[in-house]
Write a structure and sequence with these properties.
Helices cover 33% and strands 19% of the residues. By secondary structure, it is an alpha/beta fold.
């Protein structure tokens, strides 16, 4: 990722890290009835879907493409096996360039001009067109909750589910909620007691660091905060202090470049930690290259999320994914894009007589039944809760990096569950 935009990535990290625990649901549809009932052509004509990706965004070309690539791989495999009831799935992609203007352009082209039945595996840095998608009644399935759109609008179904009212305001009265399960895990399962939180002296980075600090303190940690200058960061000083303070864990609110330099500094000063904790966006096969100059810290990297590790090839659904997605670069976001495409396909197959419409797909998504994408996802639900939960039982997928083995799964994600408090934050 680009060194020049840690602020953008810090905001992304906030959304991704909390997405699995943030709560949400869908809005009653009285204000949206009668809109967006266009259907895909019948009689063997293709079923058209759209994928919006910030492929050329300020944070770098590869930052957001994983969900798109995973979804396309699924649809390629599906079409090779006969499509949906003999109908090919026609995928239309759009790169919004990471801007709100570009996103609105993509929504206009795909939703209003090309009349896609649904959007799938959206990964947009600025989802400015979300309200237009919702107004048109177009189901957006399995998108990455980079911003607050999936906690705000009906017809939008993020990959991690939602419990919020989604009445045009984010969450409940403008507040979202996230759990402390990540911190609970490392405390209970790994015996961690002291955590360092490293951030830039930049608004978004510092805000995320405060949120992490709050969650850690709620779980009883001693918290050491380290802030480095964005323009001239002294990572060595931060690493030396977290070593001196005896940190068991290290969390951060920085870009990949900053993380790699922090890890190098930790190796240089001999800082040994139980875990250097990252999130699902950085759960990739490029760790060996990204952290090539920090072997000890690299092998202390842990990632947490809400989907099954793409390295778990003994699981049939993962095996199928890996057989289709070949090549050097693999990521957890690719697997989640694959799961999003599967989700749409199951919804489309539920439509009577092969008449795949926006309304039919939306009904499937709004069934209020958990969905796991054949075990790839911790079961996802969408509800409509008038009040946010004070606590919630949340399960967690955890993996750690090991040179030679890649990401090694730590425990079964469906059994690794904790009853944790839900903390309010503003998007």
């Amino acid at each position: 990722m680009s060194r020049r935009v840690p602020a953008v990535e810090a905001l992304l990290v906030v959304a991704v890290l909390l997405a699995g625990a943030a709560c949400g649901s869908r809005l009653p549809e009285s204000d949206f009835e009668g809109r967006g009932t266009a259907s895909a052509p019948v009689g063997g004509a293709p079923v058209r879907v759209g994928i919006i990706t910030s492929a050329t965004s300020p944070v770098g070309g590869a930052a957001f493409t994983g969900p798109r690539d995973g979804a396309k791989a699924y649809f390629d495999r599906l079409n090779a096996r006969g499509g949906i009831g003999g109908r090919e799935v026609e995928v239309r992609t759009c790169d919004d360039g990471g801007s709100g203007v570009g996103n609105n352009d993509c929504v206009h082209r795909l939703v209003e001009e090309e009349k896609v039945v649904a959007l799938v595996a959206t990964s947009a840095l600025d989802y400015a067109g979300a309200a237009r998608v919702s107004w048109a009644g177009v189901p957006d399935i399995g998108g990455q909750p980079i911003g607050a759109a999936y906690e705000t609008y009906p017809h939008l179904y993020g990959i991690y589910g939602s419990l919020a009212p989604r009445n045009g305001k984010p969450g409940w009265g403008g507040e979202l909620y996230g759990g402390t399960e990540v911190y609970r895990y490392f405390k209970r399962e790994r015996g961690a007691r002291t955590a360092a939180v490293v951030s830039y002296n930049q608004a978004a980075s510092a805000a995320y660091a405060r949120l992490v600090t709050r969650g850690l303190k709620a779980e009883g940690y001693k918290v050491v905060t380290e802030q480095v200058d964005f323009a001239l960061p002294n990572f060595r000083a931060a690493a030396a202090d977290l070593k001196e303070q005896g940190a068991d864990l290290v969390f951060d609110a920085m870009d990949t470049h900053g993380n790699a330099r922090l890890c190098e500094a930790m190796d240089d000063v001999g800082a040994k930690v139980t875990a250097k904790v990252t999130n699902v966006q950085n759960w990739t096969s490029s760790v060996g290259d990204d952290y090539k100059d920090a072997p000890r810290c690299r092998n202390a990297l842990w990632a947490t999320g809400s989907s099954r590790n793409y390295e778990d090839t003994d699981h049939p659904a993962v095996h199928e994914f890996r057989a289709a997605v070949r090549g050097k670069g693999l990521s957890q976001w690719q697997l989640e894009g694959w799961a999003a495409a599967m989700w749409f396909t199951d919804a489309a197959k539920s439509c009577p007589d092969g008449d795949v419409t926006r309304a039919c797909v939306d009904r499937f998504m709004n069934r209020n039944k958990p969905y796991s994408a054949r075990g790839l996802l911790i079961p996802v639900t969408f509800e409509h809760r008038a009040q946010p939960p004070r606590t919630r039982r949340t399960c967690l997928s955890v993996a750690r990096w090991r040179d030679g083995d890649g990401w090694v799964t730590q425990g079964d994600m469906n059994d690794q569950c904790f009853d944790v408090p839900q903390l309010a934050y503003q998007p």
